[in-house]
Amino acid sequence: MSTKYAVVSLPIGAFDTNDKDDAVLALKGQISSDNGTVLPFRVPDFKIGTLDALVQQADDLAKLESTAEAVVAKVGDSLKTILGGDEDRLASYKMVNDKPTEQYINNFSWNKIRYRADKPLGELIDTLSKELVTVDNDVKSKVNQYNSVKTNLATLQRKQTGNLSTKSLAPIIDSSLLVQDSEYIETHLIVVPNNAKKDFLKQYEELAPMVVPRSANQIAQDDEFVLFGVATFKKYSHEFLQKCREQKWTPRPYKYVEGGREEEQRELDKVTNEERKVCGEALRIARTGWSESVMAWIHVLTLRVFVEAVLRYGLPLDYVSALIKTTNKLAPKVKSALDSQYSYMGGNAFGRDKRGRVTKDDAAMSSDMMAAGLGGDGNEYSAYVYYEMELP
Hints:
The chain is of the alpha+beta class. It has 3 domains: about 1-40 and about 320-385, no CATH class; about 45-160 and about 260-315, subunit c (vma5p) of the yeast v-atpase, domain 2 (Up-down Bundle), CATH 1.20.1460; about 175-255, Alpha-Beta Plaits (2-Layer Sandwich), CATH 3.30.70.100. It is about 50% helix and about 15% strand. It has helices at about 20-30, 50-80, 85-95, 100-105, 120-160, 195-205, 235-245, 260-315, 330-340, 365-370; strands at about 5-10, 35-40, 95, 100, 185-195, 215-220, 225-235, 250, 320-325, 350, 360, 385-390. Strands 2-9-1-12 form a 4-stranded antiparallel beta sheet. The chain has a 4-stranded antiparallel beta sheet with strand order 6-7-5-8, with helices on one face. Strands 3-4 form a two-stranded antiparallel ribbon. It starts with a strand and ends with a strand.
């Protein structure tokens, strides 16, 4: 079952303590260990601009997080495709800063060197946005190159390993089997199903005028087809080939080239080596892309938590944030437990029924709050800062 994370942020006043570590412990007490694990999630105190800027940044960060999630998913799909769906190898490539992805997220801390917290929020958002675009473009470009080379190699390999109706004839045809440099006669190569071999030998001389009698020469045979060489006068070649097609016998156009067999093998060897090289490059770039995009995503999410906390709770910056590790199935229980304890922070947006269960009794207010950008992921209003994150 895939891991899902929830990031929450609440004002310190929601707890019976002024100590953030104690507040995280209190939060742990609200979540059953069967439903999730609560971990500290440190959010730096970033530089705050104007209220108008914060509202715009909240919108920008919502869009940027969707972009980050999409980039991570695309990079994950690229790795899976390159590795042929090998889950064990895939796990070894899904590393962030040379650590398993879950380990990195469980122990996440803001990268103060790469993203200095004293920079304006707008500058940090712009930096993260550019990094995600770069990762997306780099991975997409290299994977497209790899897919192109892989397709080319598959085509060449089919020519070597297919049946007689499709494979290359260069390794099969010897120049002595063909009539060449004749002004009047030429050799045609016809592929016939094995079960039609006798019919072909009976009929080929009568298919068209001026077929050279007894010229049918069996050149090769595989599990499905027989390859014949037949000589005809050039004047009637077109008619002969058309009659063969009508009988479901396949003409194979072929022109003998000296050294063609060796040239095809050199081309196959060249593309095989190129495929290995580009595959290695694609894996390296996709692995780096996974690390970079996951890091960008969690940093974007951290900024979202900070901005929404400021918009919700105001100043001073006395908030407690935590990361809750859960699963898709158990996430609703985690949310329900948090709602049960902290729904009062939503004011009139939440109420309780006769059994004490949380209800939303003011749809208009919830709608207004969502429109103001205070609706978690935009799907449903939450009384506190709450975002979910699920890695592919």
